[in-house]
Amino acid sequence: MPFERWFKRDKLRASELSPIDIPKVRKYSFVMTQEIRKKIEALFPCEKDIPREIDFAPSCGTYEGGMTYLIDGELRAWSGRTSEVLSPVCINTDRGLVRRKIGMEARLTTGEAISALDAAERAWDHGRGVWPVMRVQERAERLSAFAAMMRSVRDQSVRLLMWETGKSLSDSEKEFDRTVQYITDTVEALKETDRAGARFSSNSGVLAQIRRSPLGVVLSMGPFNYPLNETFTTLIPALAMGNTAVVKLPRYGSLCQIPLLHAFKECFPGGVVNIINGDGRDVAGPIMESGKVAALAFIGSSRAANILKKQHPMPNRLRCILGLDAKNPGIILPDADIDLAVKECVTGALSFNGQRCTALKILFVHRSIADAFVKRLSDSVDALPFGLPWEKGVRITPLPEPGAPDKMRSLVDDAVKKGASICNSNGGMSNESFYFPAVVYPVTSDMQLYTVEQFGPVMPVAVFDNEHEVFDYIVSSNFGQQASIFSRDPKRVGPLIDVLANQVCRINLNAQCQRGPDVYPFTGRKDSAEGTLSVSDALRCFSIRSMVAAPESDAGKELLREILHERSSSFVNTDYLF
Ligand code: G3H
After folding, report:
1. Same domain, 314 and 361
2. pTM exceeds 0.90 for this model
């Protein structure tokens, strides 16, 4: 339906739509109701309408914790350069819409970064520090105590997480709870690892106890989309294995970690965990350039990971555990259950507004069902509840990165210029930090959306005739994290699994791509990851096998027996054996 007639039908004039962007709807144009338009225009509240019970600091206006950092077991107060922490939630003021100020955050300098590194190095003390030689049982107790203390600041941390990232309140709660659960599961896995290492092996006259030992100082950097969870899924296993760490907080999502600093201080010996904030080039760069980092745990872009890795002067001494970019495809075969595929694709592509490394970032639909699929997909996307993060049932919320709506617009414009359409009526409507998800179809190889990771609320849909075309796409992609196949036909699914298994690291059948449950391996090929994370795999990533070997003679056995009896070694022990 031509654009003009479409507006007439809905009794809207283009002039009425300002400041909302008007999507260029060509092929499919469903009813864009005045209610939706008005709701997006009026999305952001006045200050007085913010519900006090979900505010980040009900009593004092803004959150004051952002000046605090942790080095060498001391909570220090920063008085140098700062920056404002602004929420993706805007406030309606006399000056128009302005991002609500949450508080200030410290922008530490290279000096503080190096102090944090020195503290971590002292705590490591070439492997002789209190923490690296502590008995596993005691380390496990400290981690459990930390999880308990963490629970006590849940409300504050969750509210800050919601305000900083725009993540819905329920998803922010889930992220917090999942993180606590991850710590609990890590403690259990640590005990299991220790139990496995307690047994002595005997081979060819050599008696050995083989255990996993820590690596040294870890630099841990999490992303804005899961600032708590993704930071902790590397930091906690690194600590569990006896490493010491410097944590550089993410650009968005740093304040939600500040309420936890006290628990870190109380539960770990000084210098074991050091938490700093600042610009990457001032803080992370000099730490890497020192050559003192034994392991880099980084979740973010492959571009930033490459820079950080290259800064290390002795790359052979550096282990990298990386979670990077992805462009996970959903493959919808002709016999797919369309309703199920639509439901999973919508959740898979648009949970947290598509800002997940595991999100489905392109859909390949068989030509025979493409039109039907796109129509149902568009209707489902248009029906998604959107609004402010604390609203009940909300699925689409404002985006934290200031440039994100422009990035979405530019990718969509490029596709539309080259012949695709926005197929859902509300697609691309935006207001400041808010962008309604756009279903863009048909996406072809000349469009940016075909290969660029959008990391936001845009769903590109491409058409295929033969599975080989999709396979070729995956082979030529820079990424290799996951894929989803939607079909009920074992004869088509089986062979596809076989080729995909050598290109990606998880193939989801009739389900969205995702990381969880956290006990399963999470990794990727090519530019998507380095190392494997899961509760138990992460413990392996942050450790190396060391062994004590002795001749299987009476003297050898006797010495080991005495060490055990006198409990003179943390390494040689059988604490968790029984
Ligand atoms: O952003 C990447 C996250 O690890 C994704 O985790 O699949 O559980 O949302 P998720």
Report:
1. no
2. yes
